[in-house]
Design brief:
homodimer; about 500 residues; alpha/beta; Rossmann fold; 2 domains; five-stranded parallel sheet; 22 helices; 10 strands; about 55% helix; about 10% strand
Chain lengths: ~500, ~500
């Protein structure tokens, strides 16, 4: 793949200078139009030509409007980055819609470098490539324009460059340790680069391999590729953004819906009850146990993630407070998921969850979560059919990265029957300070319970994995629900500690 | 101060339960109104009653709408936090307008803890209190509602609590190591707490000391104080937000304006020129020098901050690119300051600069900066007279914290005369890809040059400190300007390394 690119392409100074003014105007205009568009642009610059990559970044800053171009480079991960799954550092720097993010020394080089330094085994490297592909695919699927450039310098050119630098170090001071190291490790580096390029060159996110011997050719090729792709995308953006109406019932849906009585929800034993006295005693014991575990987790730097989903008025808030009542404020954070703020809306739907992932030793509690995509967004048609169907795999991948990083993850569905729900709605309405918790939406959701049952059943079936299983909690009796959750949380921590 | 609060206040269960429903509704309503208001609420919970602080946080989460309440707790600083000035961790978690941020184990406790552990000397502790006051003052001055609660438990109560826990550890499992440590260190802890309370209790941000022996009294007192302050502020918010028109010329302004020929700008030698040959040679040498310095800075973890201000078309962008051309993309970041995005607008005007502060070993380059407040915002009347006058001290404090942290800071004013500026505007208009850089605003700004000269002179006079001096760079000749900047940047790094 790389040798095939070594065809010695050059661009004469004359052609270069004649094409440049128009190209720069066009690039600026396209970037200007992008500001109004609803997709982000991710430019990934990688390669074996270290100097070329850095020069190219400067050129792009000169040719594009630097005010709306953010460069992200990734060296040794910081402590905060090491405390999170590997891709956290990339997620948190992703550009929002209308923005351009320039990524250099990013996920491709980081994967190769870790393999070269034997931080990553053969199988680990393959898994890494897999994560890269899925990461890039979900970005593209959610609308990002992702352009990947690999700058390749033939070995003999690199050799010449190093020789020149040895002879006249004062003239060729840009040549440095990285170039020498690539040359020396050429035979190990290249096969890894080739493997990475072939494994992560997908239809959605192909690599553009650019020979960088001649900088004029390199600059023009990259800039023209960006311009072409950006224009094409801007021209078709309107079609893509057309709201994709969800067909509210497909034959499979109907088939599924006809048998909600077989599902895991129907099998939940809603009759379980616990007495006040047993509750108080067991709760205190559970909280004590949780506190000790949280202290150990803090010392050992083990974080955890808890996800609470469930019917409206199922008692998520109260259950969560029974957990946090045992903890120090410093050891946990509750993230109530509401409608996304503008900054969140401008990003991939998983971005706002990625950014919250906790530091080592902390517990992160989501009161509703990324499952909104396959629940409310599916049922209400806020997400297209494509989008929510894709979400199962995206969510599995997200959770897999959390668990692989050593962060235990527990997911709860708090289950109540429609009658109990109605009672609680009524009770809320007659309690002044709970009134705000009940809106017309809640009644509308209640009317669509059958649709939600289908969505919940499918969610549990398709995202309940061994590493991140769902726990359906019968919650008609709040007390027994709280005790069960407390118990599962403690077990989850015990297993991880 | 603290003993005076030990008056054994309690609240009967009956009164408590009778007042609670109305209080909770009122709190929710006030919080709801806040969502539409244009100020943030910062609730600082501190104290010698560790358990009380944590309980109070849970209570506030229950009583207020937890979806719009973010708790921030601060333990041992992370590596990323240690790489920045001390207050960076607080700045980056500040709530935006309409939001409530709950801070616990925050700046007061951190200051006392560092002093107790002798991480901070006596003088250092005093400086810290000074920073705290100024931090709180600038938040309040910019519109934040800051409420500070110190929960105080009399020593004999703490002793009882510890005794109970020793007797029945299973019932009183919340009592832990922190409580014991406060008791043992009481005689060292209390004077520090008293000192902190008296030094940082200002008119703008007074402390509310609340005895927390009786939790009902504690909960009610805190919640009612929050409610009262929030309501009061909501009621007067409209007046505060009335645009404060800047009187465009006060007598002092006129006096100052009459003598711009005496200023530092007038003294800049705009005639300096450098030949193309000398330029090329000196530039290459300077870039080589900068590269070596940046490599050393990376190894030694020394960051730096460069600020570029100057007339429109003075050549900031080109000068910056001559610096970055010598660097690896990973070693620097350029932040072009444009109009703030909605998230930035929702925060203190310094927030967006604080959040960018670089990791160890990186160079951060601001293309325009926080000086916008005392330049364009002053001249155009976007900031009230109060606001921009206050800004000089706020900026000095901000820069002082950067420099104190060991981050060298260099500030450049690129100076050109009006004729050169006009020539460059014209040239830009006739260069297709530079046209976007020139707007009617530029001509308007040019017409107000005299006003800007007054603002620039005052800015240089009032924010040019020994630690962070201004360098006025004659820039009629772009080449000599670039060489001078390159030289100053290298000198700045050399001094710091």
């Amino acid at each position: 793949m790389l040798e095939a690119a070594e065809i010695g392409r050059t661009q004469s100074r004359k052609t270069y200078e004649s094409r440049l003014p128009a190209l720069r105007v066009d690039l600026l205009n396209a970037q200007f139009d992008l500001r109004e568009a609803s997709f982000p642009v991710i430019l990934l610059v990688a390669g074996d030509d270290w100097i070329g990559c850095n020069e190219l970044i400067n050129v792009l800053h000169e040719w594009m409007d630097a005010r709306f171009l953010q460069t992200n480079a990734f060296g040794r991960p910081s402590e905060e980055e090491r405390e999170r799954p590997r891709f956290w550092r990339y997620w948190r720097t992703l550009p929002g819609r209308g923005e351009v993010g320039l990524f250099v020394s990013a996920w491709p080089e980081n994967a190769i470098a870790d393999r070269l330094r034997k931080k990553e085994g053969k199988a680990g490297f393959e898994r890494r490539l897999d994560h890269i592909s899925r990461f890039e695919e979900t970005l593209v699927a959610e609308g990002a324009l992702l352009l990947k450039f690999w700058l390749h310098l033939p070995k003999k050119e690199l050799q010449k460059r190093l020789a020149r630098a040895r002879k006249k170090p004062n003239e060729h001071w840009r040549v440095g340790a990285v170039d020498g190291s690539i040359f020396e490790n050429w035979d190990r580096f290249m096969p890894l680069a080739e493997r990475l390029l072939s494994r992560t060159s997908t239809g959605a996110a192909p690599w553009h391999v650019v020979e960088s011997t001649d900088e004029r050719y390199r600059n023009l090729t990259v800039a023209e590729t960006i311009l072409r792709a950006l224009r094409e995308r801007l021209a078709t953006a309107d079609e893509r953004e057309a709201p994709q109406v969800t067909v509210s019932a497909t034959p499979e849906d109907v088939a599924r819906r006809s048998s909600p009585s077989d599902g895991v929800l129907a099998r939940a034993d809603l009759a379980s009850r616990v007495s006040g006295e047993v509750y108080e005693r067991t709760l205190a014991r559970g909280q004590r146990r949780l506190r000790k575990l949280s202290e150990r987790a803090r010392r050992k730097g083990v974080s955890s993630v808890l996800v609470f989903e469930g019917w409206d008025a199922a008692g998520k808030g109260g259950t969560i407070r029974r957990l946090t009542g045992a903890l120090d404020a410093i050891d946990y954070r509750t993230i109530p998921i509401t409608a996304p703020c503008p900054e969140e809306q401008a990003h991939h739907y998983l971005w706002r969850f990625w950014r919250h992932l906790p530091r080592a030793g902390r517990m992160l509690i989501f009161d509703r979560s990324w499952y909104g995509r396959v629940l409310v967004e599916r049922v209400e048609g806020f997400a297209s059919r494509d989008a929510w169907q894709r979400a199962y795999a995206e969510i599995r991948d997200f959770e897999e990265q959390i668990v692989e990083h050593g962060i235990p993850l527990a997911k709860f569905w708090l289950h109540i029957d429609p009658e109990t729900q109605l009672e609680r709605f009524r009770a809320r309405e007659s309690t002044p300070y709970k009134k705000y918790k009940i809106t017309d939406d809640d009644y509308r959701n209640r009317d669509r319970r059958d649709d939600y049952v289908v969505a919940v059943e499918e969610m549990i079936a398709r995202t309940g994995t061994e590493a991140a299983p769902w726990v359906v909690v019968p919650a008609n009796d709040k007390k027994s629900a709280r005790l069960q959750v407390l118990d599962v949380v403690c077990q989850t921590l015990e297993k991880a500690l």
